[in-house]
């Protein structure tokens, strides 16, 4: 990890530890105040606990033009991004995406869509509905490895993170606590329950919390749709296409709507926010990822609406290209932050239990 980023985060953390004005703001400050000195692993843990709500910055009396020049949200955001890049496997891909994320995502979507159109052109028909364009076996052959390999990459990354932050054997109680906190997004309520100041210094808002929840639950519903369809296909012998009132369709449509709305809302909030309070070097990559994730949900909805039209083959190729791009890039984009954040919440619950 980059030494200069850790040194600056350590300087600011030590000042915050002496001040303690923001003690109840979020999970970061109780964890920060539990330490007297900060090893690199401590700073990595604090950075991944931080949700960048920015309430501490606007409440701080030591921000610029004070000589301390504190900007803890930005310092932790830079350490957080650097930790994802440093622990990622293979590492060079992560650093490249954060600087050229939008262009990489767009190129891959176009490339994969062209690949799917080429597969159709040389003959892959083998079923009804979408399978008349790309057979079920062809989809499995393409998507199974591109789903499993990123999971292996994420597992390697999380193992490195866990070792860095001094994590111990996980207890079920710690995991349950972490999932509960993640599900409620309670750290985006900034301690007092009124929300955070992400969009505006003078206004508390639950907006960022709500769009995060829309994205998270939308993605989980889409994943549930695919999982249920897999069980129905292999376990029950019920093959696609499925009707609207089937579980795969209900989960998929509702998940696509939530995912699209959440990603649009997230982009709007980021455009309103002050870039200097986050990691400005990763701003383009963050926007590129959010747009990609939103496009996956939106293209799936369009495909559902126009699935019986002449546009279906092209729409299917574009949608599958976006989904495949999302899978391939998962370990190297902000998608990975969900895994790191959950691991950091488990480690924090562990710290509290053992202290």
Automatic annotation (TrEMBL):
Transmembrane segments: 103-123, 129-152, 214-238, 250-269, 281-304, 310-332
Organism superkingdom: Bacteria
Organism: Shimia abyssi
Keywords: Membrane, Transmembrane, Transmembrane helix
Keyword Transmembrane helix part of the UniProt annotation: yes
NCBIfam families according to UniProt: CitB
Name the UniProt record assigns to this protein: Citrate/tricarballylate utilization protein
Keyword Transmembrane helix included in the entry's annotation: yes
InterPro entries according to UniProt: Citrate_utilization_prot_B, NarG-like_sf
């Amino acid at each position: 990890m980059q030494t200069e980023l850790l040194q600056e985060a350590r300087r600011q953390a030590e000042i915050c530890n002496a001040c303690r004005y923001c003690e109840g703001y979020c999970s970061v400050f109780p964890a920060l105040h539990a330490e007297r000195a900060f090893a690199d692993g401590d700073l990595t843990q604090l950075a991944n606990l931080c949700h960048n709500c920015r309430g501490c910055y606007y409440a701080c009396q030591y921000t610029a033009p004070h000589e301390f020049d504190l900007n803890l949200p930005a310092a932790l955001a830079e350490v957080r991004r650097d930790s994802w890049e440093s622990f990622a496997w293979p590492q060079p891909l992560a650093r490249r995406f954060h600087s050229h994320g939008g262009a990489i995502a767009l190129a891959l979507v176009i490339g994969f869509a062209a690949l799917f159109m080429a597969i159709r052109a040389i003959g892959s028909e083998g079923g009804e509905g979408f399978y008349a364009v790309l057979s079920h076996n062809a989809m499995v052959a393409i998507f199974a490895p591109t789903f499993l390999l990123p999971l292996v990459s994420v597992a390697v990354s999380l193992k490195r993170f866990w070792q860095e932050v001094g994590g111990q054997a996980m207890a079920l109680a710690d995991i349950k606590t972490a999932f509960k906190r993640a599900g409620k997004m309670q750290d985006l309520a900034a301690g007092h329950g009124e929300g955070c100041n992400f969009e505006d210094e003078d206004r508390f808002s639950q907006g960022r919390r709500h769009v995060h929840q829309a994205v998270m639950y939308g993605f989980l519903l889409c994943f549930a749709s695919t999982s249920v369809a897999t069980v129905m296909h292999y376990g029950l012998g019920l093959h696609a296409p499925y009707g609207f009132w089937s579980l795969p369709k209900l989960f998929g449509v509702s998940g696509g709507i939530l995912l699209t709305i959440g990603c649009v809302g997230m982009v709007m909030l980021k455009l309103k926010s002050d870039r200097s309070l986050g990691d400005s070097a990763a701003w383009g990559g963050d926007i590129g990822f959010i747009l990609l994730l939103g496009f996956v949900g939106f293209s799936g909805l369009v495909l559902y609406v126009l699935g019986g039209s002449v546009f279906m083959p092209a729409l299917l190729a574009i949608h599958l290209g976006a989904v495949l791009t999302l899978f391939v890039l998962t370990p190297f984009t902000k998608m990975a932050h969900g895994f790191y954040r959950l691991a950091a919440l488990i480690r924090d619950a562990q710290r509290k239990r053992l202290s």
